[in-house]
Amino acid sequence: MKPRLASLLDYYYESMSPTLQALEEKRLAILSSLKKAALMLACLGTVLFFVLSRTNVFTPLHAFLLSAMSGFLIFMFIYRHERAGYDSLFKDLVIEKMIHFLDPSLIYAKMDSIDAHEYERSELFNEAYDRFSGKDLVRGEIEGVKVRFCDLHVEKKVRTKNGKEEWSDIFSGLFFVADFNKTFHAKVVVLPDVAERSLGILGTWLQGVNPSRGELIKLDHVAFEKLFVVYGDDQIESRYILSHALMERIVAFHQKIDKPLYLSFVDSKLFLALHYTKPLFEPILTRSLLEFKSIKDYFELLMMITNIVTEFKLNEKLWSKR
């Protein structure tokens, strides 16, 4: 039986809270240092602005921008220096403890991630990428099902209208891999149905002529079809994988999570990607660690992830294997 929120509350006050006092003091010291640095840089920036604006080299606007940018860059350097070590300690004392509280058999490696080969193997995102990074890898067995998941960030370099290069996200968020309880040989990719919802019939036509994805698979589940577009290389086996019951579970999971959801079924494995706009397991400096609500959000996120196995019934041998 999985731990509930009430049991985490007991665990937090009995086992975690005493050890978090030192980390809380470190957090407060960092905040104090950052406030002092911000105040000092604001003063220095103001002085720099007046000095530059009185020269013939800079206009007042240029002097302001140069002063503000210099202050910002120096502050970011101080910010990263000050919190160096805090994030790592937070993960040791909070994230790793909660993972082991949920399931002592799970292994946590805060600096590791799913590798690029596995990401490509999922075929969820076909765009070429220029930067691949991840962290907070968790691996092990949940309910007898082998799983791996991590916080993943994949980016590409793009050129703006002004000719400048910028980094653009291909994917950022939770990447989850688990053994699927059916053996299959076909590949099935389930993506958010953006085109049909935006363009209607034209979107459906465009989905049907996407050569990089394979055959368009139309399914007889209305709610699922409204949310997702499905590609596969075998119509029959795609329907064998995406049973009506599984589509029901995917729709329910999507409604509960309410985030862009990507799924693929490759080599008898389930790949799942959930898009998040912020890192999953990073500490928030403005939150006290001595308040349970600061910890609760991380616990609920971990519960949601580990519950994927039971949400999709990956632990149940519902179907005979071919």
From TrEMBL:
<feature type="transmembrane region" description="Helical">
    <location>
        <begin position="37"/>
        <end position="55"/>
    </location>
</feature>
<dbReference type="InterPro" id="IPR021484">
    <property type="entry name" value="DUF3137"/>
</dbReference>
<dbReference type="Pfam" id="PF11335">
    <property type="entry name" value="DUF3137"/>
</dbReference>
<keyword id="KW-0812">Transmembrane</keyword>
<protein>
    <recommendedName>
        <fullName>Galanin</fullName>
    </recommendedName>
</protein>
<feature type="transmembrane region" description="Helical">
    <location>
        <begin position="61"/>
        <end position="79"/>
    </location>
</feature>
<keyword id="KW-1133">Transmembrane helix</keyword>
<keyword id="KW-0472">Membrane</keyword>
